[in-house]
Specification:
The chain has helices spanning 16-24, 32-41, 90-103, 121-126, 148-159, 176-189, 213-223, 282-303; strands at residues 47-57, 60-69, 78-83, 112-116, 166-172, 203-207, 237-238, 241-242, 248-251, 267-273. The protein is of the alpha/beta class. The chain has one domain (16-303): 3-Layer(aba) Sandwich (Aminopeptidase), CATH 3.40.630.10. It has an 8-stranded mixed sheet with strand order 1-2-4-3-5-10-6-9, sandwiched between helices. Strands 7-8 form a two-stranded antiparallel sheet. Pfam families: AstE_AspA_cat.
């Protein structure tokens, strides 16, 4: 048994037996069709809805959807919104959907909009960071991706020659990062787990190769009236990374295989809300995601 996790042997990476043991313990806790597909269907009057692939896991089929501007105009810049790369991060999925239901129409004159609300529906249903193969999709956006969730959206964008100018990827940081997912990762990889300080509040992860600090700042300022911004810890960091400005850290998107490295968009960011905070609630977290997209588009509309 791993020191911090009930599957595997301390210091030894998982083989197929351990991955199957982990998979066997996962159970459906909510319904993708009812929670997500039904809301997508209600958007068909205003937007084009396309299926870009299907995941099949243990006899269960999960169709994957993008919702697009109906009147696509080649002369307009394009914005991509992705949610549910980590399926358990609830407000990422529901923030993407709520943006389409409320705010998106206000930007159709200035942008082509494409939204993939839930890239990892199995993870959504089982409240998981990984897919059934114990792979983290948000480390797998790379050539010959081992994660179907990544490969399918990458193929779709390439086939349709979609080159977004703006990409907002919607995420959460939760207490289960420390109680479940980081210990599981260490067990899977045969390493020692070190938990991180979970920030209390909203923050952004910018791409270190195209950080656009004014763009990130504009998003933070738009979110402030909706929910609180995470302060740095005693080391001046958020989740172990130095805070480069209020509420912003940086990762190498493409180098790490992150979803924000999916495109070459000039303006790119990853949102992070903290739903387990005593100072917020699920509705506020969704509203913060929508505010972040709004702030991103209002800034980009002036800059592009």
């Amino acid at each position: 048994m791993s020191q911090d996790y009930p599957i595997g042997t301390q210091g030894k990476p998982w083989g197929e037996a351990e991955k199957q043991e982990w998979y066997a313990q996962q159970t459906k806790q909510r319904d993708y069709e009812n929670d997500v597909i039904r809301r997508i269907d209600h958007l068909r009057e205003q937007f084009d809805v396309e299926t870009y692939g299907e995941l099949n896991y243990a006899g269960n089929s999960y169709p994957l959807f993008v919702v697009r501007s109906r009147k696509w105009r080649a002369e307009l810049p394009t914005v991509l919104v992705t949610g549910g790369v980590h399926g358990y991060e609830t407000s990422g999925v529901h923030g993407a959907l709520y943006f389409l239901e409320t705010e998106a129409v206000n930007h159709l004159a200035r942008f082509n909009i494409i939204v993939a609300p839930c890239l990892s529906p199995w993870g959504y249903e089982t409240i998981n960071r990984w897919n059934p193969d114990a792979i983290d999709p948000n480390r797998s956006f790379k050539a010959n991706s081992p994660a179907q969730e990544c490969a399918l959206i990458m193929t779709y964008l390439n086939q349709h020659k979609l080159a977004p100018d703006v990409h907002i990827d919607l995420h959460e940081t939760t207490d289960t990062d420390n109680s479940e997912f980081r210990p599981a990762k260490a067990a899977r990889d045969g390493t020692v787990n070190t938990n991180w300080n979970i920030p209390d509040g909203f923050y952004l992860v910018a791409d270190s190769q195209r950080s656009e600090p004014d763009f990130q700042r504009a998003i933070i300022e738009t979110v402030k009236p909706v929910t609180h911004i995470a302060p740095a810890d005693e080391d001046g960091c958020l989740i172990g990374a130095p805070m480069v400005q209020e509420g912003v850290i940086e990762y190498d998107g493409k180098g790490l295989g992150l979803c924000m490295g999916l495109t070459d968009a000039r303006f790119v960011t990853t949102t992070e809300v903290y739903p387990d905070s005593a100072n917020t609630n699920p509705v506020e977290c969704v509203d913060a995601q929508v505010a972040a997209i709004k702030g991103a588009l209002e800034y980009a509309a002036k800059a592009l």
